[in-house]
Amino acid sequence: MSGTKPDILWAPHQVDRFVVCDSELSLYHVESTVNSELKAGSLRLSEDSAATLLSINSDTPYMKCVAWYLNYDPECLLAVGQANGRVVLTSLGQDHNSKFKDLIGKEFVPKHARQCNTLAWNPLDSNWLAAGLDKHRADFSVLIWDICSKYTPDIVPMEKVRLSAGETETTLLVTKPLYELGQNDACLSLCWLPRDQKLLLAGMHRNLAIFDLRNTSQKMFVNTKAVQGVTVDPYFHDRVASFYEGQVAIWDLRKFEKPVLTLTEQPKPLTKVAWCPTRTGLLATLTRDSNIIRLYDMQHTPTPIGDETEPTIIERSVQPCDNYIASFAWHPTSQNRMIVVTPNRTMSDFTVFERISLAWSPITSLMWACGRHLYECAEEENDNSLEKDIATKMRLRALSRYGLDTEQVWRNHILAGNEDPQLKSLWYTLHFMKQYTEDMDQKSPGNKGSLVYAGIKSIVKSSLGMVESSRHNWSGLDKQSDIQNLNEERILALQLCGWIKKGTDVDVGPFLNSLVQEGEWERAAAVALFNLDIRRAIQILNEGASSEKGDLNLNVVAMALSGYTDEKNSLWREMCSTLRLQLNNPYLCVMFAFLTSETGSYDGVLYENKVAVRDRVAFACKFLSDSQLNRYIEKLTNEMKEAGNLEGILLTGLTKDGVDLMESYVDRTGDVQTASYCMLQGSPLDVLKDERVQYWIENYRNLLDAWRFWHKRAEFDIHRSKLDPSSKPLAQTAAMFPFFRKSPESKKPSAPETEADGFVLLGDTAHEQRKAAKGKTSEAEDSQPLETDKENSSSVTVAGPEMENKAGQTLENNSLMAELLSDVPFTLAPHVLAVQGTISDLPDHLLSYDVSENLSRFWYDFTLENSVLCDL
């Protein structure tokens, strides 16, 4: 514009045209260049678009503001506000022979000349044009013109004048506006309120004012400095933005006393703010001498009535070009698209891309939203990566009732799919811990049962300095080796490792037989060798080689074992020490490491990571001294904790160290399901109260709810209540009774009811029941039953004289339950069954009530935290 930076306007209805306004008006046409080359004379706007100049209008000098006519016809009619306060209607490319030719060139002149700051067309009555002027002490600053009014000389003075540009054509000069508002003040910005064509919002010198044209003598206003650039959110007509220097004020016209939100920009003053016409609540702001446009996304977040909280906003910045931006304009229909212009009239077509919001469904479907489009990720048919996802595994395990077998605890690894060796080790460890805890409690209650769940690390520490070694003969060899005498603690450790069973008899025979049955020939041979039975080891290897799925190479290993010699410098020892590292099976490798090791030095066995932790620990318990064993267990425990290896639960037990190990496991795998079931198995109270344990449990419960596994969640809650006595009863149990309502078919006279907050209280209150009980003491002494004469009624006998409070409470329960069961058919949810064995004051007939007759009238809503009965 004249003496100012250029401005830019999109055509309201011709979405491929825009106007650049500075000292002249330039009309451009935008076209796509995706499949075509750039035409001669076109300006490149972006990689996909270019602009072609259609026409130029230089007939309106001293432009200060421009507003595009909002109606469809005429297409290119613009109102231009000038420095002298006049408003001129002009056109770009308009046919002079059209029916609207009388509008072009019409001028609207105020009484006193001063600058026109802003223009606004009425969106409903398209012929009304509002103009905001500078202050004049004897005139109004807000003038509303009707561009199509039929004036006559008798009503409104008119005169024929020539245009200031010196044209020969004359036009009407209109000097009488429809409305005059804002006397003795300046108007810096204005806009019509879309909700009512008679309401005009104006940014005056010191306040924002709402004028009602039906009563121009009154106005609603609020004092503020933020009076520039007033603009209404096109999607929320009560939300208005205005600015002052570096601050943007967001107003709610329903509560106009103060801004609902104030946005502070950079120290530079603002030059323009504009709501996006295609996106709800998106506001763009531009500061002076900046190449960045800042965007504020106003999120709709409902708040409680009476709370004065600021709206949630998401702020971001975009840089459409490298040079300073003079102005910008949102495209009226293309989503998030704008065009910007620099002070030297360089233009850029720019699209603000939406943030992509990703969402995983509870069943691992991936979806994301971008703009108005919602996309779903389609899985390839042969892609098995989803099966490896821990969420999928936990979901399938939940369906198989994984973790709920508390009798044969070891079977839980089979329910998990029998694929993970760490899970197998974990559940066998927990099985042995449970088994030997019960065995110890039977022999000597409260003795060492709790020590079992503390893990082997705590067990071996309790026996330091109590074990001595002795020499033992080999079976099948003329040789003796030093083996630690097994005290009670080391025997318990071997039992937890699974090598021996109950009792003090150290016999690994049953364990070897089970390994042979499972086809673990190499492991069985190694365990036999570690127990100084080389003859049995050779026998097992030969059986494995001759079995259907056995490895014929086991015969070669058996032959090598049979040639064992104790001579340190023998060729056999030299060859085995060299070739054992080439064996693929870790158990065959540690067998030769054991035979070729020096006495007391068994690192080749103890630190072979591919050998099961339980076998290495059992080996250490047989061959290491107390000090060596303690150091080894401590080091191995730290390794297991750091790696999150579930085999380490054998060492840590269900203690604080076990929680640390499980935390590493969950961090590595995300398996909160196993963590929850494991820690519930036998952890002491202080461990169960650990916030990490509670976090895993609650997250698993939420996960079951997200999968809509209501019954599985209820089963887990039942399981939890059995194993964790400190867990609180669920809220459903205490809240279920107030939700029951009377059956409409009930023939019994209605009992007194008290309704409050949607609850119905059936029967008498506790105070009334106790009062009635005092007057019926004799009846209670005679043991008269309380009966109802209704079908499916329940009778309860009050026996013998008891304490007054207890009798009153019993009568209260009987009256309430008899009335409840007679009037309302209902069934207990699994949430309620979870506490059946823990709450003793629930009558038996409540838990066994027959609901077969009218059950179809109700169903249990498991989608709510506090489940209620719903009438179908």
Automatic annotation (TrEMBL):
Q: Pfam families under this entry?
A: MIOS_a-sol, MIOS_WD40
Any single biological process term in GO: positive regulation of TORC1 signaling
Mind telling me which SUPFAM superfamilies this protein's record contains?
A: WD40 repeat-like (SSF50978)
Give UniProt keywords alphabetically: Lysosome, Membrane, Metal-binding, Repeat, WD repeat, Zinc, Zinc-finger
Cross-referenced Gene3D superfamilies, in alphabetical order? YVTN repeat-like/Quinoprotein amine dehydrogenase (2.130.10.10)
- Where do the segments described as Disordered lie? 770-800
* Residue stretches making up the UMA domain: 821-869
Q: Which GO terms describe its molecular function?
A: zinc ion binding
Output this protein's name. GATOR2 complex protein MIOS
Q: Does the keyword Zinc-finger apply?
A: yes
Lineage of the native species? Eukaryota, Metazoa, Chordata, Craniata, Vertebrata
| InterPro entries the UniProt entry points to | MIOS/Sea4, MIOS_a-sol, UMA, WD40/YVTN_repeat-like_dom_sf, WD40_repeat_dom_sf, WD40_rpt
Q: What does this protein do?
A: As a component of the GATOR2 complex, functions as an activator of the amino acid-sensing branch of the mTORC1 signaling pathway. The GATOR2 complex indirectly activates mTORC1 through the inhibition of the GATOR1 subcomplex. GATOR2 probably acts as an E3 ubiquitin-protein ligase toward GATOR1. In the presence of abundant amino acids, the GATOR2 complex mediates ubiquitination of the NPRL2 core component of the GATOR1 complex, leading to GATOR1 inactivation. In the absence of amino acids, GATOR2 is inhibited, activating the GATOR1 complex.
Q: Where in the cell is it found?
A: Lysosome membrane
Task: List all Basic and acidic residues biased stretches.
Answer: 770-779
Q: Which GO terms describe its cellular component?
A: lysosomal membrane
| Highest taxon, organism lineage | Eukaryota
Record's SMART domains? WD40
- What is the protein's major site of localization? membrane
